[in-house]
């Protein structure tokens, strides 16, 4: 079978694309044009199936008792109140149960630090929460680690209580995307499961007062199916699928995920995320695919069009390949075609360091095949079974070499490093010599990922 190439969209007039579908070994094809959709579907005779995933009972392997998923109309179990949760509020982190909330309504707002609609909604709630006239409990919930969650909370000036590092509530209320809002009345009955849209001062006052609300349920989102609704494609025969949507799609969540496919297939999805966020996610993957470390300065934005860069886009992809370089380049090209940007890898002349080979580089002999690391920036760094690009990333830190490092060793395997922290290049090289390597100052053309407007746009 020939190597698959991503199809190039044909722009027929402003914001409108000819969209193609191909069927190998068949004469059938389908074309559709739309003002906001770029779509490519391919069907092949050799098919695969996307396994439907259903919520399962918790195994208890993490020390928790078996947790049953709760649905609308069900009453929360006693264990819901007695589990211990990690709260953050007004600068304090506390471990406590929900028992003190029994008998009063609760609204849980599931969020993530990378979810811009989550943050926008929380800021709106934060602005009116103290103006409520009825008593109730509004609690944000995230699985983010403490440092990430608190950094977001403090940066955004939020004073709402939030549960962080959640492992429990997401099992009671599993969800494929955020924001996810759960409404529980004073009797402990789950009344609603919605998006962030109904979160208004009026609705919160009414719900906390015990009034019945007619709220639109959040649509069920099955990430195993194509994102675009209305596609009459049997998931058991879908072989290759490409989709770009421009603008916020109110019937879709805000999410980033990969599908669990059989060997030989690649899938990734960005749903309702800012264009610049998707570019930022893809750039490090391109560097990793060519075996180079990625640094913040390797990502450059050469446009002041903040409105377009922050416009939500949806990119959904399923293709029969596992080549990360071609797939990530293909996704950038799809975004470029839909957005009018010319983002991608370019060369830039820069003063840097080059890693030279001065002897035999011992290959890692780590038994488990996994990266093992012990990093103490006050004393020493120990890496075992580290990709050389990862090791160069560590060495480029200001506390060590302090410059971008180009790998000219020709070595692409994994290495072990055991070095004491020093920013003295001679002392650092004395340690690297034991691994058959040396750093030298140089000027080189290095790869950078540049986001800029295409010519003529």
From TrEMBL:
<dbReference type="Pfam" id="PF00578">
    <property type="entry name" value="AhpC-TSA"/>
</dbReference>
<dbReference type="GO" id="GO:0016491">
    <property type="term" value="F:oxidoreductase activity"/>
</dbReference>
<feature type="domain" description="Thioredoxin">
    <location>
        <begin position="70"/>
        <end position="218"/>
    </location>
</feature>
<dbReference type="InterPro" id="IPR050553">
    <property type="entry name" value="Thioredoxin_ResA/DsbE_sf"/>
</dbReference>
<protein>
    <submittedName>
        <fullName>TlpA family protein disulfide reductase</fullName>
    </submittedName>
</protein>
<dbReference type="InterPro" id="IPR000866">
    <property type="entry name" value="AhpC/TSA"/>
</dbReference>
<dbReference type="InterPro" id="IPR036249">
    <property type="entry name" value="Thioredoxin-like_sf"/>
</dbReference>
<dbReference type="GO" id="GO:0016209">
    <property type="term" value="F:antioxidant activity"/>
</dbReference>
<dbReference type="InterPro" id="IPR013766">
    <property type="entry name" value="Thioredoxin_domain"/>
</dbReference>
